[in-house]
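User: Could you go from structure to sequence for me? I need the amino acid at each position, not a summary. Structure tokens:
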């Protein structure tokens, strides 16, 4: 929807419908396999802005793949000259297994911007690790993925094309 100067906007134009989708979860080296875990997403749009949530929970047959992880977003992000950010997201990574450098039950968080060069929008997933700073989520960082030892919840917004 395009809103122009002087036009009137009514509430029904702003109330987007919540739509389920299954995001792609990929690794830069090889792709993880969700197996009997959960990989789900929801999104809504209004006035050219997409709001989304993504949930990933490992199951006993989930395999890690390799390399930095990324996830797909439901619709393409707007392209802006210079490739600047067009949105942002945050995530919470909950570790329920034993990890090097992190104790079982660690809850790590991160946030980042969504750039227009992510079309179809794929964002690397940053997480803060105490005094270690920010690392990008991968099969081995900030801990090794092993079956049902994690959940990842992400939410954010971006301008759609």
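Assistant: Here is the amino acid at each position, in order:
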């Amino acid at each position: 929807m395009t809103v122009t100067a002087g036009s009137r906007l009514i509430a029904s134009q702003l109330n987007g419908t919540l739509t389920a989708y299954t995001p792609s979860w990929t690794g830069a080296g090889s792709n993880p396999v969700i197996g009997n875990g959960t990989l789900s997403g929801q999104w809504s749009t209004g006035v050219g802005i997409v709001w989304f949530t993504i949930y990933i929970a490992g199951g006993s047959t989930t395999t890690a793949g390799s390399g930095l992880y990324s996830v797909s977003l439901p619709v393409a992000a707007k392209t802006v000259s210079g490739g600047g950010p067009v949105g942002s997201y945050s995530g919470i990574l909950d570790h329920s297994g034993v990890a090097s450098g992190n104790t079982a039950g660690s809850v790590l968080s991160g946030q980042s911007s969504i750039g227009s060069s992510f079309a179809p929008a794929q964002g690397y997933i940053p997480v803060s690790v105490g005094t270690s700073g920010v690392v990008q989520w991968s099969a081995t960082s900030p801990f090794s993925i092993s079956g049902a030892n994690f959940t990842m919840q992400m939410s954010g917004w971006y301008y759609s094309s």
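One structural detail worth keeping in mind: The two ends are 11 Å apart (CA to CA).
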